[in-house]
Write a structure and sequence with these properties.
single chain; about 120 residues; mainly beta; OB fold (Dihydrolipoamide Acetyltransferase, E2P); five-stranded mixed barrel
């Protein structure tokens, strides 16, 4: 098991338009969320869908791809690593965030109505 590492693979639908930030260093970062769905049948035999939301962060060239081609509702497959961080609000409350930092992204759906972008 020594070859196992921090690796996440997800296929889901983008929940919001990506937030793109251009940093002073010239680097670009994209932040967005995706929803993954898991379905099962309950004790009555009825289909139940469980939706999980995931915070996604992409840097550099991947952020440029996200900016150009990824939009709300688009289906994407991505691979990356799970990261956790904390910060303090202006009121002094400590908040914790878990995110997936993307290494690779595969565009599965069409952004909006224009497939030629």
């Amino acid at each position: 098991m020594s070859t196992l590492k921090n690796k996440v693979q997800l296929i889901g639908n983008v929940g919001n338009e990506p937030e793109i930030t251009n940093l002073e260093s010239g680097n670009k970062v994209a932040k967005f969320s995706i929803a993954t769905n898991e379905s099962y049948k309950d004790s009555k035999g009825e289909k139940v869908t469980n939706t999980q939301w995931h915070n996604i962060v992409a840097w550099g060239k991947i952020a440029e791809i996200v900016e150009k081609y990824v939009g709300k509702g688009k289906e994407v497959a991505l691979e990356g690593k799970l990261t956790s961080r904390s910060y303090e609000t202006k009121k002094g409350e400590k908040r914790y965030v878990t995110e997936v930092v993307v290494d690779e992204i595969l565009l599965l759906g069409i952004k909006g109505e224009n497939a030629t972008e």
